[in-house]
Amino acid sequence: MPLNKNINKIMVIGSGPIVIGQAAEFDYAGTQACRVLREDGIEIVLVNSNPATIMTDKNIADRIYIEPLTLTTIKRIIEKERPDSILSGLGGQTGLTLCMQLARDGFLEKMNVRLLGSSPETIDMAEDRRIFKETMQSIGQPVIPSAIANDTDTALEFTDEIGYPVIVRPAFTLGGSGGGIAADESALREIAANGLSISPIGQILVERSVAGWKEIEYEVMRDRNGNVITVCSMENFDPVGIHTGDSIVIAPAVTLADKEYQMLRLAALDIIRALGVEGGCNVQFALHPHSFEYAVIEVNPRVSRSSALASKATGYPIAKVATKIAIGYTLDEIINAVTGNTFAAFEPTIDYVAVKFPKWPFDKFVYAQKDLGTQMKATGEVMALADTFEEALLKAVRGAEIGLNSLDLPRLSAKTDDEIRALLRTVTDERLFVLYEAIKRGVSVDELHLTTKVDRWFLHGLVNIASGRY
User: Whole-model pTM?
Assistant: First the structure.
């Protein structure tokens, strides 16, 4: 069945204002979704509180509401416009959470509005930390030892059993908001209290820290018939402990042996099947750097910022395909817009390297804390394509418009060797340039790896750049 004929009018919820920890990737995804719906003759009701977006241009949707993204507002618009469906996976965490709340209080059922893309059950399985943990265990996927907490005392009791450090992850938040790594009781009390207040359901996950492991992501797709594909694998330059939005990301994953790649790929496909996601899904893994031990960190049952990177890196239009799937198409019915003669069921392959480089707002917020952790602080990113990692990294740095044409950060040259080594022990937006300065001063790859846990493969790439080969 190429299209659900019962769908005539769809509400699309935007992601709201661009804030710290969020760039414009959800505007990109939402705009692509609206264009797909318009091609299929579906009436579009768009709600977004941010007028400075492409999706709020008058030619993108039939009815545009620039209103606060609150339950009260969304309910009022639904009562007025009477859409038959609502798209849950294209408005980032904001849109997903609102759809979940609308479904949970029975409003969608009362108004006879169907939820497209991720069902309420799927959203709960991926976003509710307790249900997610139980789901992963039920399909044999390893998770990091953790406890669900709805109050600070529960978090403290669990940490007393497993020891510090621990990572705190609030439920239903974007960009790791409210989370962090706690090294002692004082920090845990502060982070837990903040996370509980920010989480829409007052819930946090407290888990054993695996900081230093590799962080690997897979972007996967599934349709209603159960067809699944892997669109792209991605690997973080930084180990676990730094939010993927604040890390340099390389696509495809470059340091994995084939056995590791296939192991994690199959796990990602098993997870999207178990969750029943219809559309795009981002799966994040922690992989032990010296063994085949891995754990599932989290799953985003929606188009995410990584989806935008994977789309641009591979040419596979994830937001478009996810929208087509939501309105009834299957992967073997969707023509790939890039090739024009193959279908979306074919997995893309690339013979080049894509590097994403984050862009932070510290030039505007000069007194902001520049240390990076599990809570995202970047507000944008650039992507570069090249035949090698080294070339792509240099292109990305030049494209970031930070006043650099190389990895040489002039002010670091005045630092002593001891000061450079001290800087290596902290993670800031300048970590890449500190690593490069250390390499130029003869610090060995082994020492850098022990200090920063950055994979030796990436460090040798910096050595290649320092030696003048690129």
Answer: 0.85
Do residues 7 and 327 touch, judged by C-beta distance below 8 A?
Answer: yes
Q: What is the pLDDT of residues 322-359, one digit of tens each?
A: 899 989 899 999 987 777 778 888 898 899 999 999 98
Contacts of 185 (CB under 8 A, 6+ apart): 156, 159
In a domain, 84, yes or no: yes
Cα atoms found within 13 Å of the Cα of residue 169, Cβ hemisphere only: 25
CA 51 to CA 16: how far, in whole Å?
9
Residue ending a domain, among 160, 179, 208, is 208
77: domain CATH number is 3.40.50.20
Question: How close are the terminal C-alpha atoms of the chain, in Å?
Answer: 52
For residue 295, give every residue at least 6 positions away whose Cβ sits within 8 Å of its Cβ, in sequence order, or none. Answer: 142, 143, 144, 210, 285, 286
Per-residue tokens: 372? 């990076």
CB-neighbour burial class of residue 131 (10 A; exposed 0-12, middle 13-18, buried 19+): middle
- Please tell me the predicted confidence (pLDDT) of residue 176: 59
Residue located via tokens 């984050």: 358
Q: What is the mean pLDDT of the chain?
A: 87
Task: Using alpha carbons, select from 245, 231, 236, 232 the residue that is nearest to residue 216.
Answer: 236
Burial (0-12, 13-18, 19+ Cβ within 10 Å), 300 = buried
Query: Whole domain around residue 77: which residue ranges?
Result: 9-116
- What's 348's DSSP letter? P
Least confident interval from 292-296, 345-349, 368-372, 417-421: 368-372
Taking the C-alpha atoms of residue 296 and residue 299, their distance in angstroms, rounded to an integer, is: 8
In a domain, 35, yes or no: yes
| pLDDT above 90 (res 164) | no
CATH of the domain at 187: 3.30.1490.20
pLDDT value at 207 more than 70? yes
Q: 187 and 226 in one domain?
A: no
Specify the CATH number for the domain of residue 415.
1.10.1030.10
Q: Identify whether residues 232 and 295 lie together within a single domain.
A: yes
192 and 219 inside one domain: no
Boundary (domain end) residue, out of 192, 208, 224? 208
Q: What is the pLDDT of residues 99-137, one digit of tens each?
A: 888 888 889 889 999 888 777 788 778 777 778 888 999
Residue of higher predicted confidence among 1 and 404:
404
The domain tally of the chain equals 4
Where residue 23 falls among pLDDT bands split at 50, 70, 90? low
Query: Please, are residues 131 and 121 in contact by the beta-carbon 8 Å criterion?
Result: no
Do both 203 and 231 map to the same domain?
A: no
Q: CB-based burial of residue 451 (10 Å sphere; 0-12 exposed, 13-18 middle, 19+ buried)?
A: middle
